What does this fold into?
Amino acid sequence: MNPTFSRLQARGFRHLHDLDMPFAPLNVFIGVNGVGKSSILEVMRVLAASANGQLQKTINAAGGLASLKTYGRDDSMSLRLEMPVAGKEAISYELSLQISGTGYRIAQETLRQRRHKRGEKDQYFKYIEADESNIRYYNPAKKKLQRPEWEQNPLETSLAQAPRMFQDTEKFRALLSGSALYHTLDVSPRAPVRLPQMMQPAHMPGENGEDLVSYLFYARETDADRFREIENTLRVAFPNFERLEFHPVAAGSLALTWKETSYNKSFYTHQLSEGTLRFLWLVALLHSPELPTVTLIDEPEVSLHPEMLRLLVELFREASSRTQLIVATHSDRLVGFLAPSELVVCDFDEEGGMKTARADTLELERWLRDYSLDQLWEMGRLGGRT
It folds into this structure.
């Protein structure tokens, strides 16, 4: 699978002072606390919000633009994302935001694509060009950029409000808006994942496991092969695991139970360990045929036994054929199961911002004859330690 998005640039976003980073289908970020790994996930969430008309809601939920920008720098941030297009040049989207009073304003925005014309220098075809209130869209009927003929929401991007007139740019918007971020699953005693759930069609287990039971039941009833793959994955991770069962507990509600060969009775979800629940949720998520085009996962290793991480990496690889995976981790053991092309090492630069290096660019062939990636990371050969 080619990456959905090929390059991210970010300036002034938390620890991303001046980041320029290529993406692959599978991207696992590792580095010390506070270096900015989670900022990669957050900046992608902001970009997704810029595509689906949720920018104001997302920025407000984060505490305002002041909470997202780099401390001690100017009051602006700029983001740029590229999407490859088969047989054509990549589409490039750029967004610049500035603090305005207690809110923000969209200072600049462009959506463009390089075009080659005989006898002319390389130039960009502009679908959107906006500078403050001077907003222009390309009108194919008139073959020029012109101002919108509708009321424009100044706190949402032109990308989210542009007419659906071009196949490539609409694909860009749809793929970006479909990105989803998954944090560490809540497994507290009254968390949704531990409770009975409504029996209804569900294609994803939910960001907090709120649809895990209905998702698994629906998979069993409509996609037996996928449900069998989920159970087989669990059997590899848990040798005593036998099967998942479903029990009606009220009108329209189901409880999920976990059957093991060594016990006569099954365990309800409220009886399962944190690691078992989190791994079950991750397996369900990564097996889903409805994964978003870009899947962002923060610290998937939490509560998991180190031996499960090999299986988790295998799930990542399989899922990355269907979604672009961007993962932030602190687990050196997980790193040991990755290929260099899948690992991104995060370090502080001279000014305290984050710099990245893909492990396959670090000339590790000689070292990998004698050491694994996690050993090289512990030795400081990869960086990302201080």
Remarks:
- The first strand starts at residue 7 and ends at 13.
